Input
Amino acid sequence: MMAMRIVLDTDVVVRALRSPESASAALIAAARAGRVILLASLANALEYEDVLARPNIVAGTPFSAEEGARFARAVAALCEPVIVDRRWRPRLSDPGDEHILEAALNGRAEAIITFNQRDFAPAVELGLRLDLPRDILLALENDDGR
Output
């Protein structure tokens, strides 16, 4: 079976940094192992870096803002680049999430992985799945067991 093509919402990347034992971190490890294909546009990569370099995001972790940004760049480096040549705006209630949806649609993703499923609900009407990190990990385990 071909690896699933997915886009990570920034909240998933934040969780991976904050909780190295989380499903979010395991999903990034699965991407490193080639079990899923992460997709990201330049806007996604820049947001990952911006958000993970914020002091309030790294607070309570053993990481500095620079280490958070470095982690974000490492995640972005795992991603297949997506060129956004078709805009789909406005579709979502939060304009700040539109670039995640556009990366998924332009990159031919199967799913957006997010903890913010309510705000991304219109993506389902466009043929995308909305999943939590643990849902994708369970799907990968089921595929491996066949």
About this structure: Residues 20 and 62 are 11 Å apart (CA to CA). The chain is about 50% helix and 10% strand.
